[in-house]
């Protein structure tokens, strides 16, 4: 079983998504964030469920769609998965220009 961890950038994206949606619909904002989080949990059992985007020096980048969002994630050799959220309108190519992938345990963050 793989271990799913969220990058600090993913946590920032989740907060930004929540803030944006909450301006008009606070309850929906929470539902969307919880939906993204729940959808990503499948990766622990089935890490290759998303489609392959490309190989990276640190592992394989894959995409798991959720509504209008893409849950981009990096499967590392040590059986961990780093999660990174992207709104569908943003170019996924931005992933390759990000700083070196780093992780933070998601368990310290409440959604």
Q: Hey, roughly how much beta strand do the residues contain?
A: 25-35%
CATH architecture: 2-Layer Sandwich
How many distinct helices?
2
**CA(first)-CA(last) distance:** 23 Å
Contiguous uncertain segments of 5+ residues = 87-111
Structure explained in plain terms:
Helices cover 32% and strands 31% of the residues. The protein has 111 residues and is of the alpha+beta class. It has one domain: RelE-like (YaeB-like fold, 2-Layer Sandwich), CATH 3.30.2310. A five-stranded mixed beta sheet has the order 1-5-4-3-2. Helix 1 (8-22) runs antiparallel to helix 2. Residues 87-111 have low confidence and may be disordered.
Topology of helices and strands:
Elements: E1 3-6, H1 8-22, H2 26-45, E2 51-56, E3 59-66, E4 69-76, E5 80-87
Parallel strand pairs: 1-5
Antiparallel strand pairs: 2-3, 3-4, 4-5
Helix pairs in contact: 1-2
Entry summary:
The protein has 111 residues and is α+β, with helices and mostly antiparallel strands. The chain has helices at 8-22, 26-45, and strands at 3-6, 51-56, 59-66, 69-76, 80-87. Helix content is 32%, strand content 31%.
Keywords summarizing the entry:
single chain, about 110 residues, alpha+beta, about 30% helix
